[in-house]
């Protein structure tokens, strides 16, 4: 492995790994080096020259970000020469940079502004004309003011290396250099918003957030994203009670420092289409405002009328663990076995934790040397994880095979078609994918929602299990069996067995029973992806949730819940990582945290739940399911033999979430997968821009 | 509108390499390893430009991108980096006039003035007749015979106001003069006659180290010392 080298920075000796740069050595010595173009997660460009330091035996200052650290080097970062050199660089930088900080959105959090405080001269010596550059169209998420660009090329490198969409470039040269996309179209990436964070100046800023707030007016809350099952670490910035923006927090085990465009920009949906008071369907068949007392009384009546076996509960994709636990406890006390947290109808969850987690862990994607995707589309189902797979492919030529819809994943994929029947053939006859997995040190199979949402998913899982065994997927050192979840709520639901109890019905059966009128009362905790229009008229549906979407529209009684930013809650990501999200703002109007609504309701029903605050609830949750006590660590487990013998149908294997327009079908578009993102105008604009991009492509 | 003012607003709908150029592309590609197709980007851009009246439409960029297996924006970056590639139509005679210090010291301003006077164009423009385009460029490596201009593929050197004027007139009549010094110098030899190396060892006799006194030799052919 790489050795350790020793060098001197400003008189102190530091040890760094071989292959480090001088800049990294300076950081190791605790010296701050200003930089614009250098970024830890991007390739080195060495074009801004801001990071100049003095190096012994070098006649000129050197760019520390591009200089490999060598044994015995003597580096100085705080000499007058260094200061003067950096001042020179800064002066050149400011020649063509407009001094429009007061009207620039980056103002207050701008690298250039900050560095200019340290290295800028008080007056400008520049008398000549300044450069002006036309703004570029980069889609509905990125605002461009290209005169401010300092040509660090971070955005170009991000698009090319991380996002895998080489569409940004620097055309022209010298003073005439311009950053642009080819043909002025929106960046075809789910990660495009990250270039806004990367841009050290105000050239690329967030378009939906343009001129909305100044950075110093905002309060910050560290929390967890729920737009997919990755559980990205985010920071929510609020002003007053309004969520102004979402930024990534660094977590190397999960999202590194990226977040998807949906995570970043769905937030305008938080404030629209809100259910802010209880509603009840009146005699005229329309939902009308009602008081808490009235709706609770109506629910009590409905509960009394229904037999325990006629009551059911469903939990949706954004439900937090506490709410699901409260609902589960309530349903159990009411004596019903019918509940399910899998509104997609998948059959995972009843065969142990190892059977439904992303067992290799997200960081494990860096180590994998062969991946077999089955009905999974990481690009749209877990965008930041796809960036990791791409990095692995870039760095070490990872082999990726896919059975399922051929969506462009930004790296080469060996296609096996869309016929799931070949799985059995792979078990009996083998093939290149089996050979590759067998020869791999760290093989991974990733089963996606596209394979799990089908009626024959048990059969698919059984075949996958057989393949896993054949290729030795799980060893004591490595667990290569993975389920790629798409819903933030799912794993927590599975962990607490929010599943049909003995004799209980699963989602599809509950839906059927409601059509027949066999289930008379349904508690719907934010399950919005189902169609309840066929249910019998003598059934009652109680919807608890934050947004007026499919679920609320079809309910008889609507209880206003809190959206993700408005509650302290536990979410478990697809690795089984239990994470605590924090409240950033307050729910609107009468809306309350979901668990509190259920607790209050339980008292009215005479079945009072045994906790009256969040801590007591969490204690009860942990004592019932100890996995919830193990916070912030992935909890992979050995998968058991999964699925059961079942014929696999000829239906082509599609992906659950993608951006492709599949017509009016039930396909879920990446930008709109939940009630909140469907309520977001920004997300709607992304869908439009994406379609326009596709039209351009089609016209070619 | 195009993404940059340097790119023509009006673009042809099609571009395809000619059969002859396709053969050449094969030969060029053969020089590079299979997975390094991008290495051929410059020669291919050059081929495309020669095929297309000395300028590169976006469709040609795309054709080169496909042949070199590169993203389109990467090819556009290359094409826009080098002044030798034109992203807008240019006249039949594309004048690249050097304005870098050696040429400037030797009177490139006069050359520019002549072009302005005769054709009414400055850098980046095409004459009203459509026959001439001018681009001011940096050093083209013929400083020894400064000032100089490059017209299409040829260098014209030792210019001044008058000779530039004659040059334009002749080109206007499509009477293309021989390239090289317009003062009749051979290569970049001193005027009026060589002052050094008058005593040249004949290569053939070098083994015998016999020195012969020879008359000053001049290199053959038109042109200059920079080839
Ligand atoms: S737009 Fe921003 S990130 Fe991109 S090159 Fe310019 S300054 Fe750098
Ligand atoms: S940070 Fe080193 S050159 Fe830009
Ligand atoms: S300066 Fe004009 S050719 Fe070198």
Please outline the helices and strands.
The complex is a heterodimer of chains A (700) and B (227).
Chain A: E1 4-9, E2 12-17, H1 22-28, E3 52-55, E4 62-63, E5 74-76, H2 80-95, H3 111-119, E6 142-144, H4 154-162, E7 168-171, E8 178-181, H5 194-198, E9 204-206, E10 219-224, E11 233-239, E12 242-248, H6 261-265, E13 279-281, E14 287-289, H7 292-305, E15 311-315, H8 321-334, E16 338-340, E17 370-374, H9 378-381, H10 383-396, E18 399-403, E19 414-415, H11 422-429, H12 432-439, E20 443-448, H13 449-452, H14 457-470, E21 481-484, H15 490-495, H16 507-516, E22 521-525, E23 540-545, H17 550-553, E24 557-560, E25 569-572, E26 578-581, H18 594-604, H19 614-624, E27 657-658, E28 668-669, H20 675-678, H21 681-699
Parallel strand pairs in A: 1-5, 15-16, 15-22, 17-18, 17-20, 18-19, 20-21, 22-23, 23-24, 27-28
Antiparallel strand pairs in A: 1-2, 3-4, 3-5, 6-9, 7-8, 10-11, 11-12, 13-14, 13-24, 25-26
Helix pairs in contact in A: 8-18, 11-14
Chain B: H1 19-29, H2 41-51, H3 58-68, H4 72-81, E1 93-98, H5 101-105, H6 108-119, E2 132-137, E3 149-151, E4 154-157, H7 161-172, E5 180-181
Parallel strand pairs in B: 1-2, 4-5
Antiparallel strand pairs in B: 1-3, 3-4
Bound molecules: iron/sulfur cluster and FE2/S2 (inorganic) cluster (2 copies).
Task: Describe this structure as you would to a colleague.
The complex is a heterodimer of chains A (700) and B (227). In chain A, 28% of the residues lie in helices and 17% in strands. Chain A has a 7-stranded mixed beta sheet, with helices on both faces. Chain A has a 5-stranded mixed beta sheet with strand order 2-1-5-3-4, sandwiched between helices. In chain A, strands 19-18-17-20-21 form a 5-stranded parallel beta sheet. The mean pLDDT of chain A is 94. Chain A contains 21 helices and 28 strands. Chain A is globular, with a radius of gyration of 28 Å. In chain A, helix 8 runs parallel beside helix 18. Chain B has 7 helices and 5 strands; from the N terminus they run H-H-H-H-E-H-H-E-E-E-H-E. Chain B has a 5-stranded mixed beta sheet, with helices on one face. In chain B, helix 7 links the parallel strand 4 (154-157) and strand 5 (180-181). The longest helix of chain B has 12 residues, at 108-119. The interface between A and B is medium-sized, with 18 and 14 residues. Bound molecules: iron/sulfur cluster (SF4) and FE2/S2 (inorganic) cluster (FES) (2 copies). The site of one FE2/S2 (inorganic) cluster has 13 residues of chain A, from loops.
